[in-house]
C-alpha cells in the first residue's frame, strides 16, 4: 500500500487542492468591493444623511474619524473622541473637514446626552467652519455641509440657551461652560429695545410645525429665528402694536477669529438681534450673509391664540365688546416712519385672523415689506355700519396726530384701506363726501330742528355727515355689499337682531328719535339703531345713498368681486353678496375671482392685492421719500408715545 505524498509543511496535498478550489469558487461568487445601483431618491438620501437627518454621523464625518483613527473611540467614548479631535484642530493639525465634523459630533452627542456645553460647542465649531478668518480657506459654495453647518449653528443657539422648560431662548451676558473651556458671552441690552418696544421673551421657531396657513415661508441664512414677545417702553396711545403680537427676530452669535479661538480655553462672542421685517442680511467676515428668517411661524404663534377667534361672535353680538380691548387700531409692528400704512378692516362676525394668509403672503414680498406697514381695525360688527365707520375715522385721525404731530412723515398721508364685506362699507365711508344726503334720505326735517340732546345731535353729526379722510389715498373693496346682502332679507336676520347688544349711546339716540321725533322720519327710527344687519339690507335708504355717492377726487379705488361657480358673472353671487351689489362704477379696476364670500385667503385675491399695493407704492414713492429711502434720507420724524 503506497504512502500519501505530503508537502514540506505537513499539509496533505489533497487538502491544499480542496482549499484552493473552494477559494476559487468563492472568488467567483463575490468581491470585497462591490457596487449597487440605487434609485435617485435613495442615493440622495444616502449621500446627504447626517446628524440632523438620520441621528447618525454623516459619511464625511466618519471619513474624518477613520483618518485620525478615532472611529472606535467615538463609538465607545464620544466625549473622548471629541476632545481628541478638538486637540488636533486646536494645534492646527486639521482643516475644514475636522471643524465641521466636530460640529456634527458635538451636536449629536448633546442631543443624546442633553449636556448643554456640547450644544454651545456646536455653535462655535459651526461658526468656525462657516466664517474662518484670513489664513484659512472658506468652504466651497458647493459644499453641502454649508447648509448643515448653518442648521447646527441655529439649533445650537436654540438648545444651548434654552430655558428650563424649553419654551424660550434666554440670551444673557455671562460665562458658559464648554467641553474644552468656557465661553464669555456679551449681550448688549440695547439690542432688546427699538422703536419704543422692549423684547421680554424669545420663543424658538426652528422645530415648530405650522397648521392652518396655506404657505410657510422660511428663508435660509445664518442665525436662529425666534418669535419675540414685546412690550412698550413708554405707554402707547392711538395706534398700538396689537396685544399678543410677536416680532420675527433672528439671533446671531459672532466670534472674532473663530479658528484661532479654538486653540484657547476662554472664547469670546457677542449677540446681535435683527428684526427681519427690517433687515434681511448682515455682514460677517467682510461678506454679506442672509439671515435665517421665518415670519410665517411668528404669525402662526399669534394666530394660535384662541382670543382672536372667540372675539368674532362676541364682537358681533356685543356692541360694547371692543370697549374693553386695549385698542381698536393696532399694528403688527411698531410705527415705521416712511412706510405707507395699509389698514385692514374685517367683515361681519369676523376678526383680524381672517387676514392671516394674505398677510403671510404679502410680507414675504420684500417690495411690500419695505414700503408698507400693516394696521388692523377691529370693531363690534353688530353695530350700525356708519357708527363703526365713524370710530374708524376717529382712530385713524388720532393715530396720525399722535404718531406724527409735526406732519413730518408724508407716508401717513398716503394710506390704503382694505375692507372685506362690511369692512368695505367702512372703507368707502373714509373717502366720500355725503353732505346732508344721508340725513335727507331718512328724515323730513334738518338735524338741527330735531328734538335731541346735544350729545345725541353730535353723535348723528359725526356719523351721518361724512367727509373724506385726507390721509386715505386708496381703498380696496373685497366682496363688499355696496347695495346690501340678500341674506339680510331672510327671516333669521330679524331674529339675530334681537340678540344684539348695542352701545348705550346708540340705544339712547334711537329711543329719543322714536319717542320725540317719530313723525319726522321717512323710516322707522327704531331701525336706525338695530345694528349692521339692517344697515346691509338692500332696501336700506342709507345704503343706497352711500352706494350712489362717488369716491372723492384724488382717491383711487379698486374692487375685488367674488363670484362662486362658472356661470355668468353678472348673474352670479359669492353666497352672500351678488355681483350687482359689489359692482361700483368709476373704480380704477374691477377684478373677478371665482371664489366664495370669504375670499381673503384665495391666492388670486392675494395676488390682486399685491398688484394694487405695488402700483400704489410706485406712484407714491415717485413723489415722496418712502420705505427705506426715507430712513436713509435722515428725515426727522417726531413721535409722541404718550
Which properties best describe this structure?
elongated, single chain, 38% helix, 642 residues, 7-stranded mixed sheet, disordered C terminus, 8-stranded mixed sheet
Q: What proportion of the residues is helical, as a percent range?
A: 25-40%
Strand content: 15-25%
Distance between the termini: 122 Å
How would you characterize the largest beta sheet? 8 strands, mixed
Strand order of the largest sheet: 6-11-13-12-14-15-16-17
Structural class: alpha/beta
**Rg measurement, Å:** 34 Å
Task: Describe what you observe in this structure.
By secondary structure, this protein is an alpha/beta fold. 38% of the residues lie in helices and 16% in strands. The protein has an 8-stranded mixed beta sheet, sandwiched between helices.
In short:
With 642 residues, the protein is of the alpha/beta class.
Strand-helix topology:
Layout: H1 13-29, H2 40-48, H3 59-67, H4 71-76, H5 78-90, H6 96-113, H7 116-130, H8 145-160, E1 174-178, E2 181-187, E3 193-194, E4 197-204, E5 224-232, E6 240-241, E7 246-254, H9 258-261, E8 266-275, E9 281-284, E10 287-290, H10 295-303, H11 306-317, E11 329-331, E12 340-345, H12 356-363, H13 366-369, E13 372-377, H14 385-403, E14 415-420, H15 422-428, H16 437-442, H17 454-464, E15 472-478, H18 491-498, H19 504-516, H20 532-535, H21 541-548, E16 556-563, H22 579-582, E17 589-594, H23 603-621, H24 628-633
Parallel strand pairs: 2-8, 6-11, 12-13, 12-14, 14-15, 15-16, 16-17
Antiparallel strand pairs: 1-2, 3-4, 4-5, 5-7, 7-8, 9-10, 11-13
Helix pairs in contact: 3-6, 5-6, 6-7, 6-8, 7-8, 14-15
